[in-house]
Amino acid sequence: MTLAALSLCFAAFALLCVGLPRHYGALYGSEGAVPRRLRGLRIAGWALLALAFAASVSAEGWNRGPLLWLGGLTVAGVALALGLLPYRPRALAPAVVLSLLLALAGWGWRAAA
Predict the structure, then answer these.
(1) For residue 55, how many C-alpha atoms fall within 13 Å in the half-sphere facing its CB?
(2) Helix axes 2-18, 92-112, angle to 10 degrees
(3) Which is more confident, 11 or 1?
(4) How far apart are CA 8 and CA 68, in angstroms?
(5) Which pLDDT value is given to residue 2?
(6) What is the pLDDT of residues 29-68, one digit of tens each?
(7) CA R_g for the chain
(8) What is the pLDDT of residues 6-29, one digit of tens each?
(9) Dihedral over Cα of 3, 4, 6, 7: its sign
């Protein structure tokens, strides 16, 4: 479940980032930066953050779950801000899809165990 929480944190931060007009314009052009679309991206990002928190707490309980979530936020934020976004901004969309697939794999792995 740690894999699922970390992957969801990364996808959430990426969606929150793309939900800002400046970053959306840099990636896809400013003509598509409709406020409704940006709001939807931000809502999806916050929903994924809540889902990541739920995954962390269900994996480790209330004692260590929030700590796992905060660690996942840190790792995902550093990976996004220092690694992917400045050097490979066009790889952001495939990275989000991959991270969501990893989150599903993490849940499936725990269910199988």
Answers:
(1) 27
(2) 160
(3) 11
(4) 12
(5) 82
(6) 777 778 888 999 999 999 999 999 998 998 889 999 999 9
(7) 14
(8) 999 999 999 999 888 887 888 877
(9) positive
- Domain total of the chain: 1
Neighbours of 111 (CB within 10 A): 8
Q: Could you tell me the pTM of the whole model?
A: 0.87
Q: Whose structure tokens read 């970390």?
A: 6
**Domain carrying residue 10:** 2-112
Q: 64-72 — which CB contacts under 8 Å span 24+ positions?
A: 68/2, 68/5, 69/5, 69/9, 72/2, 72/5, 72/6, 72/8, 72/9
**Nearest-angstrom CA–CA distance, 34 and 30:** 9
Query: What's the count of helices (H) and strands (E) in the chain, helices before strands?
Result: 5, 0
The whole-number average pLDDT for the span 91-100 is 87
**Residue 10, C-beta contacts closer than 8 angstroms, at least 6 positions apart:** 76, 79, 80, 95, 96, 99
